[in-house]
TrEMBL record:
Pfam families: LRR_1 (PF00560), LRR_8 (PF13855), LRRNT_2 (PF08263). InterPro entries: Leu-rich_rpt, LRR_dom_sf, LRR_N_plant-typ, RLP29. Keywords: Leucine-rich repeat, Membrane, Repeat, Signal. Residues 30-69 form the Leucine-rich repeat-containing N-terminal plant-type domain. The keyword Membrane applies. This is Leucine-rich repeat-containing N-terminal plant-type domain-containing protein. Its main location: membrane. Gene3D superfamilies: Ribonuclease Inhibitor. The lineage of its organism: Eukaryota, Viridiplantae, Streptophyta, Embryophyta, Tracheophyta. Residues 1-24 form the signal peptide. It is found in: Membrane. One of its GO terms (cellular component) is membrane.
Length: 385
């Protein structure tokens, strides 16, 4: 081996050693370290199991070092010397979220779901300029959603479901660049405000939202695919424009106080599943629902619908699940439902139908007593057949 070759190899080794040495001495920004210390200190130490991520947070080591063996094994991620993710395990941590989380200005993701954090969500959290995902699901956070949530200029996904939030939804929600919003299973009240225009999925089920479905709140949502607003206190008629939103695929408005429904014939609709069960909707079964080209699942169970079942529903090839039980539908059910070619499941029971064959699973639930049906149709002999 020549002297020049030996020198070259030696130089390469020196460079590698220097790189390793530099990597090993990388130190996390002091403000990030102090924020992490505050976050851990705000958690009851008796609820930090020995096997958990937070148990491995030992500040004798550098959090963003790439050579951890015993310390900072999980719970955070870094880019260079900055913390970019807080992703806690589901260890049952009890405590509050320290306001000093706002010092982690390079955070992209916060996920502390399925723990036992309580108290208000610190408003300082909403100042994080790069935060894209905030998941506080299944904790015990309380208080209101402050209007300065609008400061989350990069937020894409927000999940604060299964907590104890109260008050109304802030009007500033509309300015967020959200694609996914889940505020379900809280104690939120009041009307639905104007919503973020980039939404793909909206879920605010099991709250106490009230009022009508306001068109201005949904008017800019051209990409909205999923709407989950069941188990609230929404009222009035479901307006004709609602199901015509061009990207809608799934809608659940069950368990509210809707009293009417307006259905217009669709144009190029993508609607697959609709649940409007357990409301107070009166009138006839809207035949225009059968015109939605890819509709596969429909529930209007336990409303106050009268009149016959339009034959168009039994002739619809895409319809696989149909729940119309618990109404006052009358007359003979369309015979196509009971042919060997039919693949529709669901229920037509607890209505006022005539000759619904008990050999069909659609008719397993019995019909209403004739006395109730006669009363619903204004007296004997007035029931439609």
């Amino acid at each position: 081996m020549t002297t020049s070759t030996t020198t070259s190899i030696t130089s390469v080794f020196i460079i590698i050693l220097l790189l390793l040495s530099t990597d090993a001495t990388t130190t996390t920004l002091d403000s990030d370290v102090s924020a992490l210390k505050a976050i851990k200190a705000a958690i009851d130490p008796t609820t930090i199991p020995s096997y958990s991520c937070l148990a491995s947070w030992n500040f004798t080591s550098d959090p963003c070092s790439y050579h951890h063996v015993d310390h900072f094994l999980c719970g955070l991620s870094c880019s260079g010397n900055r913390v970019t993710q807080l992703t806690f395990d589901r260890a049952g941590y009890v405590g509050t979220l320290s306001p000093l989380v706002s010092k982690l200005t390079q955070l992209i993701t916060i996920d502390i779901s399925d723990n036992k954090f309580s108290g208000p969500i610190p408003s300082s959290l909403f100042s994080l300029p790069n935060l894209q995902t905030l998941n506080l699901r299944s904790n015990s956070f309380s208080g209101t959603i402050p209007s300065d949530i609008s400061n989350l200029k990069s937020i894409q996904a927000l999940d604060i479901s299964h907590n104890s939030l109260s008050g109304s939804l802030p009007n500033t929600l509309s300015s967020l660049p959200l694609t996914r919003l889940d505020l379900s299973f809280n104690n939120l009240t009041g009307p639905i405000p104007k919503l973020p225009k980039n939404l793909l999925e909206l879920a605010i089920k099991s709250n106490s939202l009230s009022g009508f479905l306001p068109k201005p709140s949904f008017s800019d949502l051209t990409q909205l695919e999923v709407v989950e607003l069941s188990d609230n206190s929404l009222t009035g008629a479901i307006p004709g424009w609602f199901l015509l939103q061009q990207s809608l695929q799934q809608v659940n408005l069950a368990n509210n106080g809707f009293t009417g429904i307006e259905i217009s014939k669709p144009i190029n609709s993508n609607l697959i599943a609709v649940d409007i069960g357990y409301n107070k909707i009166v009138g006839y079964l809207p035949v225009n629902l059968s015109a939605y080209p890819v509709l596969s699942s429909l529930s209007l169970r336990y409303n106050q619908l009268h009149g016959p079942i339009p034959p168009e529903f039994s002739q619809k090839a895409t319809l696989k699940r149909l729940f119309l039980d618990g109404n006052y539908l009358s007359g003979l059910p369309p015979k196509e439902f009971f042919s060997k070619k039919s693949s529709v499941s669901g229920s037509l029971g607890d209505n006022c139908l005539k000759n619904c064959p008990i050999s069909s699973q659609l008719c397993l639930k019995s019909q209403k007593p004739s006395s109730i049906c006669q009363q619903a149709y204004g007296g004997k002999g007035k029931q439609k057949s």
